[in-house]
Amino acid sequence: MKILAVISQKGGVGKTTLATALAVAAEQDGKSVALFDLDPQASACFWADRRKATGKGETPVVRDVNFNRLPHVLEAMRSGGADLVILDCPPQQRDIADAALSAADMVLIPTRAEALDIRAMTQTVRLTQQMGKRASVVLTFCPPTGAEIEQAREIVAQLKSDLVPVSIHLRKAYARAQQDGQAAQEYEPTSKAAAEIQSLYKYSAIALYGETQHGKAKTKSRRTP
Fold it and tell me: Which residues form the CobQ/CobB/MinD/ParA nucleotide binding domain (predicted)?
């Protein structure tokens, strides 16, 4: 079982949007997936409620998890045969961040290419490094043009962290899909938003599971936990 933590010390950078979309992408790839909502605001749980209410299904499994119980719940998922657990973490909660980082096999840090967001991203990267983990930074809400994107990329390089080679742009499909309990690739399967999520998922799967074979990461499919 692999654990992916989606984390940032600042809100409004798209953590839950990416966590839910990646959970759906992993399930579409045949994996047994669980999404743990560690945020007291419970945005991922709200997404799951909307998903059930609109008839989109009972999976991916989304659970409201107290960080103090995280090791125990993860062990139960491991025993149950889960392939992937995604941790949707809240901003500005050092104790929750420490618990998530301790467990994570991969750390994904979303950030806007704006001054306050970059400052928070820098803090999150350093916290990740202090925990002995390597950070993967993904730029979110990217505008079509602007020097800010290139400046953000240079800062990520200076921090000696990994820059995800796909940017998540400001697209209506993301927000509309969330409101309906879907991921962008479900809401508009042929859209640019869907392509971005699939590229981000491919990057994450390779980072988590190793090199690809015939274009797909080497994984095993199991029943949904």
Answer: 4-182
In a domain, 85, yes or no: yes
Q: Are 143 and 28 in contact (CB under 8 A)?
A: no
Q: What CATH number has the domain bearing residue 127?
A: 3.40.50.300
Q: Which residues contact 144 (CB under 8 A, 6 or more apart)?
A: 169
Q: Within a domain: residue 223? A: no
Q: Kindly report the pTM of this predicted structure.
A: 0.91
pLDDT of 93 reads 85
Q: Are 84 and 221 in contact (CB under 8 A)?
A: no
Residue 146 confidence (pLDDT): 78
Which amino acid is present at 130? Q
Total tally of structural domains belonging to the chain: 1
* pLDDT < 50 regions, the chain: 213-225
Give the tokens for residue 132: 């002995």
Tokens at residue 147, please? 């020097």
